[in-house]
Design goal:
Length: 155
Protein backbone atom coordinates (compact mmCIF):
# COMPACT_ATOMS: atom_id res chain seq x y z
CA UNK A 1 0.00 0.00 0.00
CA UNK A 2 1.31 3.36 -0.94
CA UNK A 3 1.01 5.75 1.98
CA UNK A 4 3.36 8.35 0.61
CA UNK A 5 2.11 11.90 0.28
CA UNK A 6 1.80 13.32 -3.24
CA UNK A 7 5.06 14.79 -4.50
CA UNK A 8 5.52 18.49 -3.79
CA UNK A 9 5.53 19.20 -7.49
CA UNK A 10 1.98 17.87 -7.87
CA UNK A 11 0.79 19.87 -4.86
CA UNK A 12 2.37 22.99 -6.24
CA UNK A 13 0.76 22.45 -9.62
CA UNK A 14 -2.62 22.08 -7.92
CA UNK A 15 -2.12 25.32 -6.01
CA UNK A 16 -1.19 27.21 -9.16
CA UNK A 17 -4.18 25.81 -11.05
CA UNK A 18 -6.51 26.61 -8.15
CA UNK A 19 -5.43 30.25 -8.08
CA UNK A 20 -5.65 30.44 -11.86
CA UNK A 21 -9.19 29.03 -11.96
CA UNK A 22 -10.42 30.74 -8.79
CA UNK A 23 -8.43 33.96 -8.57
CA UNK A 24 -8.55 35.73 -5.20
CA UNK A 25 -9.24 39.47 -5.00
CA UNK A 26 -10.17 39.72 -8.65
CA UNK A 27 -12.30 42.70 -9.66
CA UNK A 28 -12.47 46.48 -9.50
CA UNK A 29 -11.51 48.27 -6.30
CA UNK A 30 -13.91 51.21 -6.13
CA UNK A 31 -12.06 53.25 -3.49
CA UNK A 32 -8.56 52.72 -4.87
CA UNK A 33 -5.85 55.31 -4.42
CA UNK A 34 -3.58 54.00 -7.17
CA UNK A 35 -3.85 51.88 -10.29
CA UNK A 36 -1.21 50.36 -12.57
CA UNK A 37 -1.56 48.51 -15.84
CA UNK A 38 1.29 46.14 -16.79
CA UNK A 39 1.88 43.98 -19.81
CA UNK A 40 4.28 41.18 -20.55
CA UNK A 41 4.44 41.25 -24.35
CA UNK A 42 6.57 38.10 -24.67
CA UNK A 43 3.69 35.99 -23.34
CA UNK A 44 0.69 38.30 -23.79
CA UNK A 45 -0.06 38.59 -20.06
CA UNK A 46 -1.86 41.64 -18.73
CA UNK A 47 -2.52 42.80 -15.20
CA UNK A 48 -4.37 45.82 -13.90
CA UNK A 49 -3.57 46.21 -10.23
CA UNK A 50 -5.55 48.53 -7.99
CA UNK A 51 -4.61 49.34 -4.43
CA UNK A 52 -5.92 51.38 -1.57
CA UNK A 53 -2.91 52.65 0.33
CA UNK A 54 -3.40 54.65 3.52
CA UNK A 55 -0.64 55.77 5.88
CA UNK A 56 1.91 53.52 4.12
CA UNK A 57 -0.32 50.48 4.48
CA UNK A 58 -2.04 48.40 1.80
CA UNK A 59 -5.58 48.52 3.15
CA UNK A 60 -7.05 46.67 0.19
CA UNK A 61 -6.15 45.55 -3.32
CA UNK A 62 -7.74 43.98 -6.35
CA UNK A 63 -6.63 43.04 -9.81
CA UNK A 64 -7.97 42.33 -13.25
CA UNK A 65 -5.93 40.28 -15.64
CA UNK A 66 -5.63 38.02 -18.57
CA UNK A 67 -2.88 35.64 -19.55
CA UNK A 68 -1.13 32.40 -18.70
CA UNK A 69 -1.67 30.42 -15.50
CA UNK A 70 1.71 31.45 -14.05
CA UNK A 71 1.05 35.18 -14.35
CA UNK A 72 -2.52 35.04 -13.07
CA UNK A 73 -1.83 32.57 -10.23
CA UNK A 74 1.15 34.65 -9.14
CA UNK A 75 -0.82 37.90 -8.86
CA UNK A 76 -3.69 36.11 -7.11
CA UNK A 77 -1.30 34.62 -4.52
CA UNK A 78 0.42 37.97 -4.15
CA UNK A 79 -2.90 39.68 -3.42
CA UNK A 80 -3.71 37.33 -0.53
CA UNK A 81 -0.35 38.00 1.11
CA UNK A 82 -0.27 41.78 0.73
CA UNK A 83 -3.64 42.77 2.17
CA UNK A 84 -3.03 44.70 5.39
CA UNK A 85 0.74 44.77 4.94
CA UNK A 86 2.83 47.90 5.37
CA UNK A 87 4.70 49.19 2.32
CA UNK A 88 8.05 48.18 3.85
CA UNK A 89 6.82 44.60 4.22
CA UNK A 90 5.39 44.64 0.71
CA UNK A 91 8.78 45.76 -0.65
CA UNK A 92 10.42 42.95 1.31
CA UNK A 93 8.04 40.31 -0.09
CA UNK A 94 8.69 41.66 -3.61
CA UNK A 95 12.47 41.45 -3.05
CA UNK A 96 12.24 37.90 -1.67
CA UNK A 97 10.02 36.74 -4.52
CA UNK A 98 12.26 38.34 -7.14
CA UNK A 99 15.23 36.63 -5.49
CA UNK A 100 13.45 33.28 -5.60
CA UNK A 101 12.70 33.78 -9.29
CA UNK A 102 16.41 34.29 -9.84
CA UNK A 103 17.25 31.00 -8.16
CA UNK A 104 17.79 32.08 -4.53
CA UNK A 105 17.05 28.83 -2.66
CA UNK A 106 16.96 30.52 0.70
CA UNK A 107 14.17 32.80 -0.51
CA UNK A 108 12.29 29.72 -1.71
CA UNK A 109 12.16 28.53 1.92
CA UNK A 110 10.97 31.88 3.33
CA UNK A 111 7.57 31.30 4.91
CA UNK A 112 6.59 34.95 4.44
CA UNK A 113 6.14 34.09 0.75
CA UNK A 114 3.33 31.65 1.62
CA UNK A 115 1.78 30.00 -1.43
CA UNK A 116 4.04 32.02 -3.71
CA UNK A 117 6.73 29.44 -2.95
CA UNK A 118 4.82 27.02 -5.18
CA UNK A 119 6.18 29.09 -8.10
CA UNK A 120 9.83 28.40 -7.19
CA UNK A 121 10.13 25.86 -10.02
CA UNK A 122 9.43 28.62 -12.56
CA UNK A 123 12.95 29.94 -11.91
CA UNK A 124 14.21 27.12 -14.16
CA UNK A 125 12.32 28.58 -17.12
CA UNK A 126 13.68 32.06 -17.88
CA UNK A 127 10.88 32.86 -20.33
CA UNK A 128 8.25 32.23 -17.66
CA UNK A 129 10.03 34.22 -14.96
CA UNK A 130 8.63 37.40 -16.50
CA UNK A 131 5.13 35.93 -16.20
CA UNK A 132 5.61 35.18 -12.51
CA UNK A 133 7.07 38.63 -11.80
CA UNK A 134 4.43 40.65 -13.64
CA UNK A 135 2.21 41.12 -10.57
CA UNK A 136 5.16 42.26 -8.47
CA UNK A 137 6.34 44.61 -11.21
CA UNK A 138 2.87 46.16 -11.08
CA UNK A 139 3.02 46.31 -7.29
CA UNK A 140 6.37 48.09 -7.23
CA UNK A 141 5.25 50.52 -9.90
CA UNK A 142 2.03 51.21 -7.95
CA UNK A 143 3.89 51.89 -4.69
CA UNK A 144 6.23 54.26 -6.53
CA UNK A 145 3.34 56.06 -8.20
CA UNK A 146 1.49 56.48 -4.91
CA UNK A 147 4.59 57.95 -3.24
CA UNK A 148 5.12 60.36 -6.11
CA UNK A 149 1.51 61.48 -5.94
CA UNK A 150 1.70 61.97 -2.20
CA UNK A 151 4.87 64.00 -2.62
CA UNK A 152 3.18 66.22 -5.23
CA UNK A 153 0.03 66.62 -3.12
CA UNK A 154 2.11 67.60 -0.09
CA UNK A 155 4.07 70.35 -1.79
ZN1 LIG B 1 2.77 34.33 -19.18
Amino acid sequence: MDRSTPPMKALYQQLILDHYKNPRNRGELEDRTVEVHMRNPTCGDEIKLQLRIEDDQIVDLKFLGDGCSISQASVSMMSTILKGKGLDEAHQVARRFTGMMHGDEEAARDSTLGNLRSLAGVAKFPVRVKCALLGFDALQEAMKKQQEEEATAGS
